[in-house]
């Protein structure tokens, strides 16, 4: 609120008299209220019963009290939100807020379906206009979309083919695929062979693949439906279609081979393929006819099975032996198909071999005798139609001696090819010198006249005067060779720098020379030369030796042949013929031959050009191949078009012998093409749940091959609103130019505009698509009130039923089909009555539902009452309420009474129960249960039968009466009405004690009384065993004691040790008794008896322990027996071993061995193991007799088992016989003993192995159960 303005005249007056004016503080409005936030956003949430709750605070910011009314939710999605009925959470109605006081409104959101939600929270107040809070929420769901796999290609019966269906996760939540099934007329013709979707959930936007196999068992078109179940709701489906066909052999009717010279070889390829579905089994090819002997076959189909339009090749070679037209018939054979005849023809022409030379004659410049001229070339050209054989023997010079030939011609020379030779002149005499070069090839001779002039020799000679290097590969360098320069005159000669000249001077080097500026008379020097070619061919140069004498400069002719390979691919182009789109032809072979004069290496082979992706290298022996002269390698190429039309590319062969060589590749892709006559179908307005008249779309094949039309699928947000009502396309094979028709209907289920996509699959690429649209009309439902809060209700007590009114606000009739309860607590509410179920309400009509609140547990409860109808508007009503119940909090979970003398009763102990819940606690009966229940009793009880209000308490008291010596346990159980926590159980414990003067303890157990036996087993003689002894002085004065040890049976050493740190042996008196220190009254002192058997073998060493007073009077005794472990090498077939717990086995060949177990309290158990072993050399069966000699029936149970076989006691005559045991084998018997009641304290079993009733070995099993809680 702004401050009121001060009048201008008053302000001037105040300033004139010097008064300070302050702007007034803004006044608070008398009634003003505001909310803590203008908006509340929920989610994203998963559709279903889950809820989310947020709060809005309403604050009185004015100066007067304000009344806040019951909030409500309005807007399009008001049924998805509900608010607490009163600000502050009280019962329905209004609340009054003082200035600066606030209250809280709880707003809850739950959505039964996916999609965004918006509404407005309206809070009426007495401060002016209603307060509003904008409510919004988003939901997340999983979504699924299946790709159209297209039709399965035609195949034969029994031959499988596969297609992949891509599954896309289109929702916000990860997609979890739970199952894949097939349905429809031919479901058994399709099967699942791969499911990546089952491995893990697919994230939003991700994909996974399902692979389906089509394996027809009968001929014809087959259809089925693939169904994919997931967490995206109803299973998604896609149509599957496949068909069978019959393959037919195809080949050209004839093939003609170009004119071929006699003695040469011509060739032509015959492309063989099959049309239709399936494969043909190849059965060979043969030649027949008048001139069949003039042709040969290379059968490239022999290793292939012809599949679809993928061709293989039969190569026909033409090898004529005489001139004229030659014909034959090529017969192609397949299994189960008629033979195919191909007419073969070729023309043989006479071979002509014509050699031309250039120049026709050679004339050399004057040359000093005994020196060589620079070489001059003669070019030889094959101008005939057959190969020209060239070798070193082809060339000769007559007369020989002054002219020589350097040869560098590959052989043979193909027609039109040429090569060059070099001629050198080295005169031996002065004057004109003549000779003739003769070239002989294929029986023909060509001559070239040679002439030159010899001049007088110089005093300088260079030897040798001619150097011809051995053929050297390009890039290599020869070793150094020397030429000697000699001064044959009588005076010194000056030498200028020696250089290289001639056309190939850069192909040679002078790495060294000993020639200086002066060469004395009669002296010599050397020039070193190397050949280092950088390009292929005959290389010629001259060593130039300038001197100061006549004839300078002097020269030496140098020649060398640089070798390099040359890759020659054949054929120079390959036409792979027509092939169906998506198929692959058979391979064609390109042979690369090194026709050069040296070795070479193929670097790489690749396909280049505009359509390179349509051609494939199927085999390649050329990459990295090192080819010697005339060696070959091969590259196999094939054609795999991915589109219709002509395709071309180049096979590029790169190498180290120059520029890359190429082979032209060509082919033609054939395929079908689908077109549809409309891009959209609009059904206009259609009443909700009514079905429209059908609309049609026509599919036409505008391609060159048959079009296989697959399933027609509907997709999009409203795909379920449309249906394909007629379809003569699915599974059809449309010939070029043929058509088929599909019809679609729409049945809208709501008033909104409906849109979907009709997708028609086919094998000619992307599916044909038609957009579908329609608009539905329907009724609108409204429910009053929009939400219902039942307030607080006692748990287990239902509220009164409350009515809800459903109204049809039009424009169409509203059909109500069902109701349900969902959300967090649907079990807390009941639908008790309805006039709505199954009703159809005209516009403006109403019906009523009755609901009550019946909470099963305490706390706030909420649910949604859902309405199922065919209209829009309200589909859920928010229900809420609070359940009240008692909660029990005991003051303790255990009452421990400690030690109580036997026969005495303790003081009572009390457990207090406090009701921390929100309803009265009603306590029922109390009881004491457990093993020692008779030792405890409830002595006082203020709980049972008296309601305990919230926050109030009551108490139960218990007393303990000590019975038999030892611990006692039981449980106090208190029943009440506090739900799942009833009954409350309190543990009861106590110890009944006895009064004895002395206790003597064995390891882990307590023994009392006289002549008790304790047995233990050690592994071998010389091993020490320790027994624990304890003295309790229960007199009122201190005493000292003595231990007297008496050994019997096998020899052993025995001593008593104090157990302090460090342990030490007790001192002895004159009689050898071990003397203790003084034991204070009521104290317990522990000692160790250490026994070490010293006799060899399996023995028993007995030591009797007598406790004496300091005056030597006997107080109490125990006896120990220390056994050595049982040997395993006895010879009897009826050996008996025994052990207890983790102790080693005892017994075996030694009789009367004893094993003892620790003391047992009531309810405790222990076990022994008996072993019957055959140590003889023959197989036998061993009997077992068990005799109980303690007479303690009723205090213990004894269970004996051999595996799963139970042996019943008594067994005086032997109740068990082992299976036949091989030598060295044994059978184990388990003896379990459990103390079930007080009374007798020991069990004694006598075990005997039997040979047909005769006792062989005997052992004893003893439990000493004397127990004293004070010592233990």
Automatic annotation (TrEMBL):
Question: Cross-referenced Pfam families, in alphabetical order?
Answer: ASH
For the Abnormal spindle-like microcephaly-associated protein ASH domain, which residue ranges apply? 358-446, 786-874
Which GO cellular component terms are attached?
Answer: cytoplasm
**Where does it live in the cell?**
Cytoplasm
One record GO biological process: carbohydrate metabolic process
Q: Which InterPro entries match?
A: ASH (IPR031549), Hydin-like (IPR033305), Ig-like_fold (IPR013783)
Q: Does the keyword Signal apply?
A: yes
Q: Check the UniProt entry and state the signal peptide residues, or none.
A: 1-29
Highest taxon, organism lineage: Bacteria
User: Which PANTHER family does the record cross-reference, listed alphabetically?
Assistant: DLEC1 DELETED IN LUNG AND ESOPHAGEAL CANCER 1, HYDROCEPHALUS-INDUCING PROTEIN HOMOLOG
The name this protein goes by in its record: Abnormal spindle-like microcephaly-associated protein ASH domain-containing protein
UniProt source species = Nocardioides silvaticus
What taxonomic classification does the UniProt entry list for its organism?
Answer: Bacteria, Bacillati, Actinomycetota, Actinomycetes, Propionibacteriales
């Amino acid at each position: 609120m702004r401050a009121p303005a001060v009048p201008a005249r008053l302000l001037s007056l105040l300033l004139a008299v010097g008064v300070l004016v302050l702007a007034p503080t803004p006044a608070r409005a008398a009634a003003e209220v505001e909310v803590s936030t203008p908006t509340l956003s929920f989610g994203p949430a998963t559709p279903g019963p889950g809820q989310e709750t947020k709060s809005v605070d309403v604050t009185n910011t004015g100066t007067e009290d304000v009344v806040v009314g019951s909030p409500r939710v309005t807007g399009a999605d008001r049924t998805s939100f509900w608010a607490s009925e009163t600000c502050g959470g009280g019962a329905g109605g209004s609340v009054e807020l003082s200035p600066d006081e606030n209250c809280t409104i709880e707003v809850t959101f739950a959505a039964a379906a996916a999609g965004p939600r918006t509404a407005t929270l309206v809070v009426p107040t007495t401060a002016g206009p209603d307060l509003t809070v904008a409510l919004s929420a988003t939901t997340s769901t999983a979504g699924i979309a299946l790709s159209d796999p297209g039709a399965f290609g035609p195949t034969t019966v029994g031959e499988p083919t596969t297609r992949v269906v891509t599954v896309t996760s289109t929702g916000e939540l990860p997609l979890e695929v739970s199952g894949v099934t097939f349905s429809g007329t031919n479901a058994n013709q399709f099967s699942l062979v791969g499911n990546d979707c089952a491995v893990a959930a697919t994230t939003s936007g991700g994909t996974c693949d399902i692979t389906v196999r089509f394996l027809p068992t009968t001929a014809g078109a087959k259809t089925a439906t693939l169904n994919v179940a997931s967490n995206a709701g109803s299973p998604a489906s896609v149509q599957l279609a496949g068909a069978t066909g019959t393959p037919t052999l195809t080949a050209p009717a004839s093939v003609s081979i170009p004119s071929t010279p006699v003695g040469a070889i011509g060739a032509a390829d015959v492309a063989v393929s099959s049309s239709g579905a399936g494969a043909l089994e190849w059965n060979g090819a043969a030649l027949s006819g008048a001139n069949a002997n003039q042709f040969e076959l290379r059968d490239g189909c022999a290793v292939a099975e012809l599949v679809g339009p993928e061709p293989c090749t039969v190569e026909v070679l033409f090898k004529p032996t005489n001139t004229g037209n030659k014909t034959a018939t090529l017969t192609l054979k397949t299994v189960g198909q008629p033979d195919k005849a191909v007419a073969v023809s070729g023309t043989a022409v006479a071979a002509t071999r014509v050699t031309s030379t250039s120049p026709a004659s050679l004339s050399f410049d004057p040359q000093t005798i005994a020196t060589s001229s620079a070489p001059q070339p003669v070019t030889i050209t094959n101008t005939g139609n057959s190969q020209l054989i060239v070798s070193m023997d082809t060339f000769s010079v007559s007369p020989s001696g002054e002219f020589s030939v350097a040869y560098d011609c590959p052989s043979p020379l193909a027609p039109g090819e040429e090569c060059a030779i070099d001629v050198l002149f080295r005169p031996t005499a002065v004057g004109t010198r003549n000779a003739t070069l003769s070239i002989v090839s294929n029986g023909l001779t060509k001559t070239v006249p040679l002439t030159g002039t010899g001049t007088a020799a110089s005093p300088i000679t260079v030897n040798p005067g001619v150097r011809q290097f051995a053929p050297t590969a390009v890039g290599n360098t020869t070793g150094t060779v020397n030429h000697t320069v000699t001064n044959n005159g009588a005076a010194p000669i000056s030498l200028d720098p020696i250089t290289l000249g001639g056309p190939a001077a850069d192909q040679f080097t002078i790495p060294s020379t000993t020639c200086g500026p002066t060469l004395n008379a009669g002296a010599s020097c050397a020039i070193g030369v190397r050949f280092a070619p950088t390009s292929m061919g005959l290389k010629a140069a001259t060593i130039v030796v300038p001197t100061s004498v006549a004839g300078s400069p002097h020269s030496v002719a140098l020649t060398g042949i640089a070798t390099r390979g040359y890759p020659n691919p054949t054929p120079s182009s390959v036409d792979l013929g027509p092939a169906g789109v998506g198929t692959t032809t058979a391979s064609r072979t390109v042979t690369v031959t090194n026709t050069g004069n040296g070795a070479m290496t193929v670097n790489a082979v690749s396909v280049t050009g505009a359509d390179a992706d349509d051609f494939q290298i199927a085999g390649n022996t050329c990459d990295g191949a090192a080819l010697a002269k005339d060696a070959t390698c091969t590259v196999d190429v094939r054609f795999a078009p991915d589109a219709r039309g002509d395709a071309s590319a180049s096979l590029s062969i790169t190498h180290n012998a120059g520029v890359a060589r190429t082979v032209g590749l060509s082919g033609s892709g054939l395929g079908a093409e689908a077109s549809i006559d409309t891009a959209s179908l609009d059904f206009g307005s259609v009443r909700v749940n009514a079905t429209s008249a059908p609309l049609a779309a026509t599919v036409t094949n505008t391609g060159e091959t048959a079009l296989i039309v697959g399933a027609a699928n509907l997709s999009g947000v409203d795909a379920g609103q449309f249906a394909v009502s007629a379809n003569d396309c699915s599974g059809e094979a449309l010939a070029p130019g043929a058509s088929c028709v599909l019809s679609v209907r729409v049945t809208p289920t709501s008033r909104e505009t409906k849109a979907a996509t009709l997708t028609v699959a086919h094998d000619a690429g992307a599916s044909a698509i038609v957009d579908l649209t329609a608009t539905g009309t329907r009724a609108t439902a409204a429910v009053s009130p929009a939400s219902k809060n039942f307030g607080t209700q006692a748990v287990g007590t239902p509220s009164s039923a409350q009515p809800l009114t459903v109204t049809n606000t039009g424009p169409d009739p509203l059909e109500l089909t069902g109701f349900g309860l969902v959300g967090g607590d649907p079990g807390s509410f009941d639908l008790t009555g309805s006039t709505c179920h199954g009703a159809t309400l005209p516009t403006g009509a109403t019906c009523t539902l009755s609901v009550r609140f019946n909470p099963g547990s305490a706390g706030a409860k909420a649910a949604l009452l859902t309405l199922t109808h065919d209209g829009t508007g309200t589909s859920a009503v928010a229900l809420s309420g609070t359940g009240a119940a008692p909660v029990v909090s005991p003051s303790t979970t255990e009452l421990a009474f400690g030690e109580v003398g036997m026969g005495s009763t303790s003081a009572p102990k009390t457990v207090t129960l406090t009701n921390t819940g929100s309803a009265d606690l009603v306590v029922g009966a109390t009881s004491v249960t457990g093993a020692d229940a008779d030792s405890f009793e409830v002595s006082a009880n203020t709980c049972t039968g008296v309601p305990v209000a919230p926050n109030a308490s009551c108490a139960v008291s218990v007393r303990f009466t000590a019975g038999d010596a030892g611990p006692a346990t039981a449980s106090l159980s208190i029943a009440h009405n506090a739900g799942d926590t009833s009954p409350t159980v309190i543990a009861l414990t106590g110890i009944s004690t006895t009064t004895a003067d002395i206790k003597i303890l064995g390891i882990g157990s307590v023994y009392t009384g006289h002549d008790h036996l304790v047995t233990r087993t050690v592994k071998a003689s010389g091993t020490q065993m320790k027994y624990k002894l304890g003295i309790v002085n229960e007199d009122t004065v201190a005493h000292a004691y003595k231990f007297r040890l008496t050994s019997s049976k096998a020899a052993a050493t025995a001593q008593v040790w104090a157990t302090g740190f460090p342990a030490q042996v007790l001192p002895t008196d004159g009689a050898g008794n071990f003397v203790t220190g003084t034991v204070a009254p009521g104290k317990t002192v522990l000692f160790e008896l250490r026994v070490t058997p010293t006799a060899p073998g399996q023995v028993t060493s007995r030591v009797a322990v007598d406790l004496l007073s300091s005056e030597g009077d006997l107080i109490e005794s125990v006896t120990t027996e220390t056994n050595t472990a049982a040997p395993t090498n006895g010879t009897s077939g009826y050996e008996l071993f025994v052990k207890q717990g983790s102790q080693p086995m005892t017994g075996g060949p030694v009789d009367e061995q004893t094993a003892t177990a620790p003391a047992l309290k009531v309810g405790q158990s222990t076990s022994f193991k008996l072993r019957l072993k055959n140590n003889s050399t023959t197989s036998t069966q061993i009997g077992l007799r068990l005799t109980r000699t303690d007479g303690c029936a009723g205090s213990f149970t004894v269970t004996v088992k051999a595996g799963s076989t139970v042996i019943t006691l008594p067994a005086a005559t032997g109740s068990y016989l082992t299976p036949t045991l091989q030598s060295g084998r044994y059978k184990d018997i388990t003896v379990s003993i459990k103390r079930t009641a007080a009374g007798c304290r020991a069990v004694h079993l006598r075990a005997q192995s039997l040979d047909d009733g005769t006792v062989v070995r005997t052992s004893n099993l003893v439990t000493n159960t004397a127990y004293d809680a004070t010592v233990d």
